[in-house]
Amino acid sequence: TRLHAGPGVVVSYAIAGLCALLSAFCYTEFAVDMPVAGGAFSYLRVTFGEFAAFLTGANLIMEYVFSNAAVARSFTAYMGTAVGVDAPSKWRIAVPGLPNGFNQVDLVAVGVILLISVCICYRY
To answer: What is the number of other CB atoms lying within 10 angstroms of the CB of residue 56?
Structure first.
C-alpha cells in the first residue's frame, strides 16, 4: 500500500525510466545500422531471421489484443459513471452455457473494440 511503500515508488519510476532510455538507445543503434522503416519486427527479421521476427510479431499482436480488451472493458465502467449507471453489470449480457465468472458479454466493450479496429484498418 501507499503507506508502506516509502521511497520504493520513486526508485521504481527511476528504474523504469532507465530501462526506457536503454531501450531507446537500442532502437537508435538498430536504426543507424539498418536504415529500414519499421519497428521490432523489421529489426529482428534482419538480425535474427524470420522465426524470431514471427515470434515477436505474434507477441506484439497478443499484447495489443489484451491491452485493448482491458481498456475497452474499463470503458464500460467509465461511460456508466458518466451517464449515471454505476453498476457496469447492468450493461452486460449473461451467457448461460459458459462457466460462472466468464459468462458475461460486455456489449459496450465489444462495440469499442470494433469501432477502434475499423478506424485503424480503414484510416485512409
So the answer is: 18
